[in-house]
Structures are given as C-alpha cells and as structure tokens.
Amino acid sequence: MSVEQFEQFVLPHLSTGRRGPAPTLGLHKIFNYILQLLYMGCQWKALPIEKNDEGRPEIHYTRIYRALRRWQADGCIDRIFAGSVHRLHQDQLLDLTAIHGDGTTTAAKKGGDNLGYCGHKHLKGDKVVAFCDRRCNVIAPFVSAPGNRNESRLLRDALP
Length: 160
Description:
Layout: H1 3-10, H2 27-40, H3 61-74, H4 76-90, E1 100-107, E2 116-118, E3 123-132, E4 138-146, H5 151-158
Antiparallel strand pairs: 1-3, 2-3, 3-4
Helix pairs in contact: 2-3
C-alpha cells in the first residue's frame, strides 16, 4: 500500500500510543508488514523483515504483532473496514441490487468461543459468513456463529 493510500484510508482510523518514545518505524511500514503477513499466511516469526544499516532486522516481529493486537482491541480494524465501505458508498461504487452471502466452517482443534458441532463436516468450529454486493465488494463484516447453525438463520436475524 502506498503512503498516499495509507494516509487517506487507514491513518485516520488508527490509534497511536500516548506514552513512551515515538516508534522508530512508521505506522505505514508496520501496517504494510501486517498486510504482507495476511497475504502470505505465514507464521509471525517467518515474516520477512527488511534489514537496517547494521544488518539487523529493522523491527522485531513481536512488535508488529503487538501493534495489530492493539489496533484490534481499539476497534481500528473495524473502523478501517467501515470507512472503506462508506467510501465506496460515497463514490457510488456499491451495487446493492443483489447481495451475495457465502459461508464457511472453520475447524477449532483446540477449542475456543462460539463453537458448535457441524454434523455435515464432522468437526467442531465456527461458521463465518461474508456478504458482498453485485460487484464483489465485501459490504458486511464477517458474521460468526457456532458451526452447527445454518447460514439462513444468520440472515433472518440480520434483516430488519
């Protein structure tokens, strides 16, 4: 993501620390590392981090992880998503003549919250559903439910 895109779409929604020294690495660079990790799907310790002038990594992967966790806890990630959907709506790029919903069941091998048993797939896990407009823009945050629930119940609960 370019610096201009980051400053326009992401930076207004991010929280920054009030105490302590300013980070040596910019928020743009940290956010791009998070995007790279999500794209690659690798483990945190396997994230390729650029080297500084001394040949050491410019930031430790745990600092990037902590930044993501802080932004999640502060609601920044949700605000970035809502801001992008709002921007699509302002620019009249949403086509709501048809709304598509697609769901998947994710396995929870070691337990967790909101679990259910899916008899069809023979696993315990969560049901995740995404709603998109006709142009495949994701317009609703992911709705999760126990894995034993049918997706149509989620739609009925979401309708006014």
